[in-house]
Write a sequence for this structure.
């Protein structure tokens, strides 16, 4: 805990950590949804809402449709930091991305022409990240599973580089009991060393004129201001302030400034959220991206034939702006304008997921992947669909049998409250549930 807060303030913070955590979520602006959850607007988050109590999110079909993301309010401040940056079409690196809350923010900010590289070194966590990216459904994220030094081969490639660094987790004390029990001064020191190593590699990937964001969910200065000071010691001549980020006093955010970095501390006794630290600065120079040639290690993609491309195109509204490629036994869709970037990444890094998984072609007909149901560009005119009620939607999400009435023969989309949640295949008088087994709801 921070000694420089003083005894009185430290006591206030400790008392706050013994209260109930704040519950919040963030809407997906790309998906039409009238939130039944409701809630109070989060001041610094355009699409964020506070809730007075925690509902059973798992039992809400809209969550599984990607209509919103359950995200801590403080971490949504990332969207506010970048609100005045022109990021449509940008390349963003989220170096420590799992489970994906901030990745979905970047995905929304860069639009269809942009690319977000969401990296996570732990493969199990990278798979969870990929699930959340698919659910968000924008089709502009490349999920990678690499050590930071491998990603750093893309020198001066990114317009925004974000390091949400692994930390000692003091900001999660009231949400996670294990965060308290696992804390130690040794862990703080180890985390600070690792944070500096990650930042050093991330820095290499940031273009001149680009934005650097460093954040943690901890309070201590060794991992927060200490790392920021270290960054300035290493690259101070190459840093300058980014556009000023002004906070309203009623938000209760503690702000401070170095020569280059604006820093923001969220303390639970003053700001309505969990503990969070974020610092932002700009890399000096022009707006040109680096042209570093990254060595291709393998060929990943194969083209699809014209007949297959025509079948794929009818499933998406923005087909004229897309290209389709096979990777393994699955066909993926990408924005044509971003595909060269995706190919470069895929040929040199370990990619877990990218674009939108379209599915497989059998006898000229697409058997759609679940990800296509969640894609914001899905054209529901391409397939029969049926609106189901909440109870039937939950049965579907549990991979239970659902009534065939209302579904046509063959592949159908399942829709709840106007949001596609997956596909079924009607064969005769029964429906085969196509919801992925590993995503099914187990909770009752």
């Amino acid at each position: 805990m921070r000694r420089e807060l003083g005894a009185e303030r430290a006591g206030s913070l400790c008392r706050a950590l013994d209260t109930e955590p704040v519950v919040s979520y963030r809407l997906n602006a790309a998906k039409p949804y009238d939130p039944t959850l409701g809630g109070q607007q989060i001041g610094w988050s355009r699409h964020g809402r506070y809730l007075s109590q925690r509902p059973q999110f798992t039992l809400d079909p809209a969550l599984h449709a990607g209509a919103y993301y359950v995200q801590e309010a403080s971490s949504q401040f990332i969207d506010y930091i970048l609100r005045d940056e022109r990021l449509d079409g940008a390349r963003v690196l989220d170096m420590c991305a799992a489970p994906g809350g901030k990745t979905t923010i970047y995905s929304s900010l860069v639009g269809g022409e942009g690319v977000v590289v969401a990296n996570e070194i732990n493969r199990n966590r990278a798979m969870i990240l990929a699930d959340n990216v698919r659910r968000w459904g924008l089709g502009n994220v490349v999920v990678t599973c690499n050590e930071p030094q491998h990603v750093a081969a893309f020198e001066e490639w990114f317009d925004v580089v974000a390091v949400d660094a692994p930390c000692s987790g003091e900001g999660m004390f009231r949400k996670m009991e294990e965060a308290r029990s696992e804390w130690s001064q040794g862990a703080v020191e180890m985390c600070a060393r690792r944070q500096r190593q990650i930042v050093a590699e991330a820095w290499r990937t940031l273009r001149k004129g680009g934005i650097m964001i460093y954040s943690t969910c901890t309070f201590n200065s060794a991992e927060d201001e200490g790392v920021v000071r270290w960054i300035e010691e290493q690259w101070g001549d190459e840093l300058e302030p980014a556009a000023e980020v002004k906070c309203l006093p009623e938000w209760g955010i503690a702000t401070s400034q170095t020569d280059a970095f604006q820093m923001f501390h969220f303390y639970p006794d003053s700001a309505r959220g969990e503990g969070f630290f974020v610092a932002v600065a700009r890399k000096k120079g022009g707006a040109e991206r680096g042209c570093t040639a990254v060595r291709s290690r393998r060929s990943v993609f194969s083209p699809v034939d014209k007949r297959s491309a025509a079948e794929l195109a009818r499933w998406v509204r923005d087909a004229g702006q897309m290209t389709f490629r096979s990777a393994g036994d699955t066909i993926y869709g990408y924005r044509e304008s971003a595909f060269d970037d995706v190919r470069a990444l895929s040929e040199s890094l370990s990619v877990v997921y990218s674009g939108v998984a379209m599915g497989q072609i059998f006898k000229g007909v697409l058997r759609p992947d679940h990800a296509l149901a969640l894609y914001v560009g899905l054209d529901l005119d391409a397939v029969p669909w049926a609106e189901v009620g909440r109870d039937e939607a939950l049965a579907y999400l549990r991979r239970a049998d659902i009534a065939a009435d209302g579904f046509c023969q063959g592949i159908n989309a399942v829709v709840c409250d106007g949001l596609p949640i997956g596909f079924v295949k009607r064969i005769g008088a029964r429906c085969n549930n196509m919801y992925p087994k590993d995503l099914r709801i187990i909770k009752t």
In short: The chain is about 25% helix and 25% strand. The longest strand covers residues 206-216. The chain has two domains: 3-283, 383-444. The two ends are 39 Å apart (CA to CA).
